[in-house]
Specification:
The chain has about 325 residues and is mostly beta strands. The protein is built from 1 helix and 24 strands. A 4-stranded antiparallel β-sheet has the order 1-2-3-4, with no helix packed on it. The protein has a 4-stranded antiparallel β-sheet with strand order 5-6-7-8, with no helix packed on it. The mean pLDDT is about 90.
């Protein structure tokens, strides 16, 4: 029988894996963050190297900062507070985690955050409960506390004045993982809100010439544009002439192909190539999507307690490769 590498406390509600440093950070209901380091040998298990109280309330989300910018994590509390914590060394003292940035958001709550890396800077995109999206840029790569608000907009293509003020329960963001020399920064974002026009996943791309973010695609068919979005994931591209994205809504997990070359209006072509519905039950929701490093296998986790792995065959037909149930 295989031995688990790590057993987390019952209060653990979220986690994030650092592939570069082989480290895991977890967030708990009591507002505690904990960092676990990988075992030195295959026969040993992960060890908890740091724990600290980051918030008074439960942690809702935790994300590692890209490793080239140091050992740091961003986290969201259930009250919507967004903070950034950095592992620092002071004189001969052991490594400790310190608060290096608290992002102000007035009365709105942060719902999701993700970091994006360009050739010249680090950016952070945050989605808020009022439907707003904020993009921050790190001013100094050596000082994680120095961030500047680069842009603020809402996740709609048409004029915002046509719609009411949304109340958003959740949001999901995924950056385009490609980092080509001529590659523009882009991310996909979808909301779970009570205003239909905010929900559908839109792909936003940074226009260098005019220094602004523009919607270049909407990943929803006409009859699906009001569907609440629970999770999005952008697959790594290892040479395909199109991008592959996964979008989870109440109807299942849609696989989309996104063109690379914009038309005369600056829009990218889209094609829905599959709808995966392996998570059973009408009330079952898929809360998390993750691609492997090759962009060939999609892992999905749902409220049915199952983790499922999906792949497409040589004919482009998607099928369930494996189903894993927690013990």
């Amino acid at each position: 029988m295989e031995k688990p590498l790590l057993t987390l406390d019952k209060g653990t509600v979220c986690s994030s894996w650092n592939y570069c440093g082989q480290r895991l950070v977890t967030g708990s209901t009591d507002g505690t963050l904990a960092v676990y380091d990988s075992p030195e040998s295959a026969s040993s298990s992960f060890s908890c190297t740091s724990t600290w109280r980051a918030h008074q309330g439960s942690i809702a989300k935790v994300v590692w900062v890209p490793p080239e910018y140091g050992d740091a994590v961003a986290c969201i509390c259930v009250d919507g507070t967004l903070s950034l914590w950095e592992e620092t060394e002071e004189d001969t003292q052991p490594l400790i985690w310190k608060l290096c940035k608290l992002f102000e958001s007035n009365s709105t709550q942060a719902l999701d955050i993700q970091f994006g890396v360009s050739l010249t800077s680090l950016k952070l995109v945050a989605a808020y409960s009022d439907g707003h999206v904020k993009v921050y840029e790190l001013l100094d790569p050596l000082q994680l506390k120095k961030w500047q608000l680069q842009a603020e907009f809402q996740n709609v293509i048409d004029s915002v004045s046509r719609f009411g003020k949304p109340s958003c329960l959740s949001a999901s963001i995924a950056w385009n993982p490609r980092r080509g020399e001529n590659q523009q920064l882009s991310f996909v974002l979808g909301f779970n809100s009570d205003v239909l026009h905010f929900n559908s996943s839109k792909v936003w791309e940074f226009d260098e010439a005019h220094q602004r973010w523009l919607p270049v695609a909407e990943l929803a068919l006409p009859g699906d544009k009001g569907d609440r979005v629970f999770a999005v994931a952008w697959a790594p591209n290892i040479g395909r002439p199109y991008e592959v994205l996964a979008i989870a809504t109440c109807k299942g997990i849609a696989i989309w192909h996104l063109g690379l070359n914009p038309d005369t209006n600056g829009r990218l072509s889209t094609e829905k190539v599959a709808l995966l519905s392996g998570h059973d039950g009408e009330v079952c929701k898929v809360w998390q999507l993750e691609w492997d490093m090759s962009g060939m296998t999609l892992a999905t986790a749902g409220s049915d307690g199952m983790v499922r792995l999906w792949q497409s065959n040589l004919n482009g037909v998607w099928h369930e490769q494996a189903a894993l149930e927690s013990s």
